[in-house]
Amino acid sequence: MHRVEEFRDMQIEATEWRRHLHRHPELDYRLYNTAKFVTEKLASFGINNIETGIAETGIVAFIHGERGEGPTIGLRADMDALPIPEASNKPWASEIPGLMHGCGHDGHTAMLLGAAKYLAATRNFKGVIALIFQPAEEDGRGAERMVQEGIMDRFGISQVFSMHNWPGMAVGEFAICDGAISSALDEFDIVVKGKGGHAAKPHLTTDPIVIAAQIIIGLQTLVSRKTDSQESLVISVTKLSAGTAYNVIPEFVEISGTVRTLKSSLRDFAENRIRSCAEGIASAFDAKIVFKHRRLEPLMFNHTEGTNFAIRAARGLVGHDAVDSNAKPSMGSEDFAYMLEARPGAYIRLGNGSTAYVHDPAYDFNDEALPYGIGYWVNLVETILSPFETS
Fold first, then answer.
1. Are 127 and 71 in contact (CB under 8 A)?
2. Which residue in 61, 149, 134 sits closest to 336, CA to CA?
3. What is the per-residue pLDDT across 105-164, written as a single tens digit (0 to 9) for each?
4. Is CATH 3.40.630.10 the classification given to domain 4-182+299-384?
5. 20 to 30 A Cα–Cα from 279, which one of 50, 96, 203, 382?
6. How confident is the model at residue 230 (pLDDT cuts 50, 70, 90)?
């Protein structure tokens, strides 16, 4: 098992890659320059089996071990940026107005490239590594689309793993848990249909703004009074649209928001109760609603065997105490969940230090974390695909 010190000499080069990507962010599936950069780097490492154009700009590249036959495991990094103007004030800040790597996908890509370079040179494992460079994580559909386009079956991937930087956790620390690690994500829209009129005569209207306010308050009681306090349900109203003039009560109000859960049963409960809550309140005021609910990213669930492999790899790199094996699940969502639905595996968090949080204009990936991510990937591969039998 390798210690992190073995990967310190890779930090300078990986930092150059990371900062290059940071200066040139691209969105969703339109990762043309990013994908070109990744493909050229992989080829320069002597990796000649590279599949491109998956989910438009996704890449799957393969490194074959020299220790015999074995399974194929997938290692995934996301590549896309966010539509946020950067405020980090770093010399390597985004050169594209309105876009930035605000979630650290530039770091994720650089760490997987670093591991690819190391493993292509050593190949001290059996079987095959499938390096998965994914577009459109922020869009929430890139992982699903790569799965739908058949990467698991087509390339015989038996297990799949991913990693995400974690601001607020010290560099050199890892966190993971068995089972649910990130919430499912749903979106809802409620249109409250009332009767508009003059603001001076509200008694002649069915005011949808007042009704919408009651619905918003009512939705909060689904969490505080209808859900077990030991379970996790988050309902957030995030958009509210109504009216065009000061002296006119509008005919309708639009309410939108998100639902995050850590159990499938709560997902069903939330959808049904949001609808019934809105319908009941609107009916009491002689109004009607139109309700839409969309299930987006599923619950992300770490599998026991994959979690144990991840823990061993991380502890081999940094020691027992620097790896939290019973981390609290996050109510944020992550589209890697689609890959973990398709194949067993695990998702681990990597400390990013005391940086701004992800999706903050001041955020920047911490380059000190690069050797830890590279070393983790190497240890994981050599743990799962060891040429020696382990008990």
1. yes
2. 134
3. 999 999 999 999 999 999 999 999 999 999 999 987 899 999 999 999 999 999 999 999
4. yes
5. 203
6. confident
Spatial distance between the Cα atoms of 34 and 85, rounded to a whole number of angstroms? 19
Cα–Cα dist 345/251, whole Å: 50
- Global pTM reads 0.92
Q: Give the fold, CATH level 3, of 184-295.
A: Alpha-Beta Plaits (3.30.70)
CA distances 154 to 38, 75, 282, 340, 345, Å, are 21, 16, 51, 16, 18
Domain ranges within the chain, ordered by starting residue: 4-182+299-384, 184-295
CA distance 56 to 54: 5
Question: What residue type is assigned to position 305 of the chain?
Answer: E
The answer for residues whose C-beta is within 8 angstroms of residue 85's C-beta and 6 or more apart is 97, 98, 100, 361
How far apart are alpha carbons 164 and 109 in whole angstroms? 11
